[in-house]
Amino acid sequence: MNTSANQFQNSDKLITKITAWIAGVILIGLCIWGAATLWELWKYEVTEDAQIEEYINPVTSRVGGYVREIKYEENQPVRKGDTLLIIDNLEYQLAQQEAEAALLHAKAQIAVLRSSVSTTSKNATVNEGQIAASKAKLWHQEQEFARYEKLLEVEAVTQQQFENVKTALEVAKADYQSFLDTYQASLSKVNDIKVQREVAMAEIKRREAVVDRNKLDVAYTVITAPYDGKMGRKTIQNGQMIQAGQTLAYIVDQHEGKWVIANFKETQIRHMHTGQRVDIEADALPGEHFNGRIVSLSPATGSRFSLLPPDNSTGNFVKITQRVPVRILLTDARDKIDYLRAGMNAIVVVKKGGFNND
Fold first, then answer.
1. How many angstroms separate the CA atoms of 149 and 163, rounded?
2. Full residue range of the structural domain in which residue 81 is found
3. How many CB atoms lie within 10 A of CB 277?
4. Does residue 353 fall inside a structural domain?
5. What are the distances in angstroms from CA 354 to CA 144, 289, 326, 350, 357?
6. Shortest CA distance to 85 belongs to which of 203, 232, 207, 249?
7. Where is the p-hydroxybenzoic acid efflux pump subunit AaeA-like beta-barrel domain (predicted)?
8. How does pLDDT run across 227-243, given as a tens digit for each residue?
9. Which helix or strand (DSSP H or E) is residue 66 part of?
10. Do residues 67 and 165 share a domain?
11. Tell me: the pLDDT tens digits for 19-75?
């Protein structure tokens, strides 16, 4: 019995000792974890409310029509100027041909008006000759009238002869005035044609603008990539009718780089400033750290930019710690951050009071 009791006592002592050691190790671990946590809270600001961002822009159509050919696939890398989509352009080409024909017609009107100016100017020249002849005839009739008037006084001619000469003088005056009026009318017609030519020139400019507009419409039927990037989801098919301004696809801009939007609590941003270096860890790559630099801090909390900002004057106020978006540019080489995708979660660590600019 004594031997069994001693064995139990030894076993209890061993268990107690092991338990004490385990408890001590756990306590030491908790102390180390607590110290590390306190050190981190004292030296760093950390948030897990952060996402990777890139420019994701819609590709839209400037003209409507039926899709004739799609030249890209989902998630396909593209270069600036690569053809993405072709719209059936037959109607736009016909409109362009019609506009070009109208332009030719307007230009032909200029040639007609130019010819009219030349013809009218020649008529005016002819009228000048007729005016000179009529003036000479009028002068002759005036001399005849003066002679016959003197002869009538001495009764050397009859009254009938004198009246015939007087009538001829009146006819000569009327002819002379008629040629003068015709000449003035020719000059006025020349001026009218010149004014019409200015109107025709304005019409040509308008027609040229219509032609250029139709050329643009034809060019818009070929939709190209605006910059280097990667295509997103494809939502259209061949033969589909699309409208002007309709979103056809989305393209991720790989030229402008990537950044992180970290939503820090309002109590954390007092230690942050533009240019401060940041450590980033993406959830998709645990243990892999990326370098970043604070580019800007939002001028207002995220809730203020929401569709329905909170209004604390309604009487049901509940104090909630607000978050302020902080824009952080990823400064690592493109090859290193190439795996990161827009929308991925990240953990952002910022050193308090650090003025360590890049």
1. 10
2. 57-88+222-246
3. 17
4. no
5. 119, 19, 16, 8, 8
6. 249
7. 260-350
8. 888 888 888 888 889 89
9. strand 65-70
10. no
11. 878 888 888 888 887 776 676 667 788 899 999 998 888 888 889 899 999 998 888
